[in-house]
Design goal:
Number of strands: 11
Structural class: alpha/beta
Low-confidence stretches: none
Helix content: 40-55%
Mean pLDDT: 96
Distance between the termini: 55 Å
Shape: globular
CATH architecture of the largest domain: 3-Layer(aba) Sandwich
Strand order of the largest sheet: 5-2-1-6-7
CATH superfamily of the largest domain: NAD(P)-binding Rossmann-like Domain
Number of helices: 20
Radius of gyration: 23 Å
Number of domains: 2
CATH topology of the largest domain: Rossmann fold
Length: 487
């Protein structure tokens, strides 16, 4: 049955569906980046509020700024912006149709429609999921990358921007000039201090063309930090067939695990939904939650994903079923990551590692090692390097994390151990593959990437271990090297 407002009432009884009148919903949020994660996470929380008769004036307007977003818009529009979420649990799967999104802004050059929609007074939050590498951060300084061609363009053409951030700046200018007032900018990406990062990008971009507007944004807008968590695989042919097993024809279904977490700083200048009534947590200590999740979960993903793909293990659950890779995960987490993470009210580091191990091992979640290993250039410095530095600062060992860095260097050579080709899997793939080829004979070259490792290449406690492990991987192979480390 094709998914639509009209067919909701005819869905199989086993499928949960909106119990609220979607025709009476009014918008409050523009969300830029309507990928799977948003629809399985933030949209779900809002949907669950609506199921309680709450937040009826906070419906989501979808948006995007790239050409491929138009394809998503058309697919979503054809099914009245509904999404089927399929929870994948070893005990059994279940489906729920989420209806919190009610429209999608047309995608066009210059982003005029998006700017005008964000400038309307009913929009009180503009949220984003644009990936951790999408905030125009200078990799060397971690500050704003004012030299990026997209940013140069938007600074010179503020009324016709090409980036989401340029569109946000243009919309805020209209709101200020019309006397409407500010909105909250809400990042939902895996970045430490994601609200601070979003503020930096928006304010810095505004300052390049309109310093007075930048001051107004800095004074009146808020950018709450948040930690988001739910494992959401990409949608492919398997998922499209799976949704049909529930009797639904959905062009953009989403599969997800049976776990969600959202911890939010309560800092909203124009109001917000009561997400806590749907299970989210408002906290003044988001940083502790962020640190635990990014270092243990996201860092743990990087510990195993490149190793798995190198050994032709296709999924994360497959890595956890592989005795050597699973043991690598366990040893590195408990000896070199967990000791530098503080507890939060819900979890100790020990219980959180046990939870992540269970979640990664879920065989129903077909999360590919290739997807998780993507963009190591952003993920290694964001998810692993902080643990390396913490270990060195405390005089503790970093052998395992040096090995993980060596595995990534070997991965970027672009050839698996069985001889098959690893297709480009990083925004800077040509750069890292060229460097990986040089590092095969001169390992220390890899650590010369100061935008990733900073001065770690100058510290023999890390650099010597890295060199030894990478040499061993090339001499004896990855499995033998893992065996040596684990012994």
């Amino acid at each position: 049955m094709k998914l639509s407002n009209e067919t909701l009432k005819d869905l199989p009884e086993t499928v949960l569906r909106p119990e609220y009148d979607r025709s009476k919903l009014t918008p409050g949020i523009v969300h830029i980046g309507l990928g799977n994660f948003h629809r399985a996470h933030q949209s779900w929380y809002l949907h669950r509020l609506m199921q309680q008769g709450l937040a009826q004036d906070w419906a989501i307007i979808g948006a995007g700024v790239r050409a491929y977003d138009e394809t998503m818009r058309r697919k979503m529009a054809a099914q009245d912006y509904l999404t089927t979420l399929i929870e994948l649990d070893p005990a059994g799967s279940k489906a729920e149709v989420v209806g919190a999104m009610i429209d999608y802004v047309p995608v066009e050059d210059g982003n005029g429609a998006l700017i005008e929609r964000m400038a309307q007074p009913d929009i009180r939050i503009v949220a984003l999921t644009v990936t951790e590498g999408g905030y125009y951060i200078d990799p060397a300084t971690k500050g704003f990358d004012a030299a990026h061609p997209d940013i140069v363009h938007d600074a010179a053409n503020p009324q016709h921007p090409r980036t989401a951030f340029g569109a946000i700046v243009a919309a805020l200018k209209l709101r200020r000039d019309r006397g409407i007032g500010p909105f909250t900018g809400q990042s939902c990406d895996n970045l430490l201090g994601n609200g601070h990062v979003l503020r930096q990008t928006v304010v810095s971009l505004a300052r390049l063309s309109d310093p007075e507007l930048a001051d107004w944004i800095e004074t009146h807008c808020t950018f709450p930090n948040a930690m988001v968590d739910c494992i959401v695989p990409a949608t492919g042919p398997k998922e499209l067939e799976l949704v049909k097993e529930f009797g639904i024809e959905d062009m953009v279904p989403v599969t997800h695990e049976n776990f969600r977490q959202w911890v939010i700083e309560d800092n909203f200048c124009a109001g917000r939904p009561d997400w806590d009534k749907a299970g989210a947590t408002f906290s003044d200590n988001v940083h502790a939650y962020e640190t635990m999740k990014i270092r243990i979960l996201n860092g743990g993903h990087q510990v195993i994903s490149a190793a798995g793909d190198l050994l032709s293990v296709e999924t994360i659950s497959g890595c956890m079923a592989h005795p050597l890779i699973a043991a690598l995960f366990e040893k590195v987490e408990r000896e070199e990551i967990m000791p530098h993470v503080a507890p939060v009210p819900e979890f100790t580091p020990q219980t959180y590692v046990a939870l992540i191990k269970k979640r990664f091992s879920n065989p129903k979640i077909v999360d590919t090692t290739r997807r998780v290993a993507f963009d190591g250039s952003s993920r290694h410095p964001g998810f692993l390097v902080p643990s390396i530095r913490a270990g060195l600062d405390r005089g503790m060992g970093v052998e395992g994390l040096a090995l993980v860095s060596a595995i990534w260097a070997r991965y970027c050579l672009g050839v698996r151990e069985d001889g098959s080709t690893i297709e480009p899997n990083d925004p800077f793939w040509s750069d890292v593959t060229a460097l990986a080829a040089k590092a095969k004979d001169t390992p220390e070259v890899w650590l010369s990437m100061r935008h990733i490792y900073g001065d770690l290449g100058d510290d023999p406690r890390f650099a010597d271990s890295f060199t030894r492990w990478l040499t061993m991987i090339y001499d004896t192979g990855l499995e033998a090297t893992l065996g040596t480390y684990l012994a």
